[in-house]
C-alpha cells in the first residue's frame, strides 16, 4: 500500500501545465501503469504527443478543456472522461478563464520510461530557475 499527496510531488512542466505523477514504478512500485493529476491554468496547453505502448484515461474534475485528438477538437467539461487509445496523438488546451484540474491514468507501461511518450510538436520554452 502506498499513499502519496500531490503537494509532495514536484511538478513536471516539460510538456506544459502542472503535471504530477503520483503512483508509478518510481513512487509506488507499480507494475501495470501509472496515474497522476494535471492542472492547466487559462491559456496553458500540454503539447501534442502520443503513447506508443499505453492507452490513457483522462477524467476532468473541474474546469473545461479542449482535447485535440488526432487533430480533431473534443470539448471536455467537469465530470467528463476521455479514453485515448494507444498511439493516438493528443494535445490538451485550456481556453477558459478558470484552471482545469484532471486525473489521468496510463497503462500498460512502456518497456522503458523514455519510450512512453513521443512528442509530435516542439516543447514549450522552460523557465530558468
- What is the helix tally? 1
Average pLDDT level: 94
Report how far the terminal alpha carbons are from each other: 35 Å
Low-confidence stretches: none
Give Rg in angstroms: 14 Å
Strand content: 35-45%
Share of helix, binned: under 10%
- Largest β sheet strand count, sense and barrel closure: 5 strands, antiparallel
Order of strands across the main sheet: 1-2-9-4-7
* Mass-distribution shape: globular
How many strand segments?
A: 10
Helix- and strand-based class?
mainly beta
**Helix/strand order, N-terminal first:** EHEEEEEEEEE
Task: Write up this protein.
The protein contains 1 helix and 10 strands. The chain is mainly beta. The strands form 2 sheets. The chain has a 5-stranded antiparallel sheet. A 5-stranded antiparallel sheet has the order 6-5-8-3-10, with no helix packed on it. The longest helix is centred in the N-terminal third of the chain and has 4 residues.
Overview features:
129 residues, 10 strands, mainly beta, 44% strand
In short:
This protein is mostly beta strands.
Topology:
Blueprint: E1 18-23, H1 25-28, E2 34-40, E3 45-50, E4 55-62, E5 64-69, E6 72-77, E7 81-84, E8 90-93, E9 100-107, E10 118-119
Antiparallel strand pairs: 1-2, 2-9, 3-8, 3-10, 4-7, 4-9, 5-6, 5-8
Amino acid at each position: 500500500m502506498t499513499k502519496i499527496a500531490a503537494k509532495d510531488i514536484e511538478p513536471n512542466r516539460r510538456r506544459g501545465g502542472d503535471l504530477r505523477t503520483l503512483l508509478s514504478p518510481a513512487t509506488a512500485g507499480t507494475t501495470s501503469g501509472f496515474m497522476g493529476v494535471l492542472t492547466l491554468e487559462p491559456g496553458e496547453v500540454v503539447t501534442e504527443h502520443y503513447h506508443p505502448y499505453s492507452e490513457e484515461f483522462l477524467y476532468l474534475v473541474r474546469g473545461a478543456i479542449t482535447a485535440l485528438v488526432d487533430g480533431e477538437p473534443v470539448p471536455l467539461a467537469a465530470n467528463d472522461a476521455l479514453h485515448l487509445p494507444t498511439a493516438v496523438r493528443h494535445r490538451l488546451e485550456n481556453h477558459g478563464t478558470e484552471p482545469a484540474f484532471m486525473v489521468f491514468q496510463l497503462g500498460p507501461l512502456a518497456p522503458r520510461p523514455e519510450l512512453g511518450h513521443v512528442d509530435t510538436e516542439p516543447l514549450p520554452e522552460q523557465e530558468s530557475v
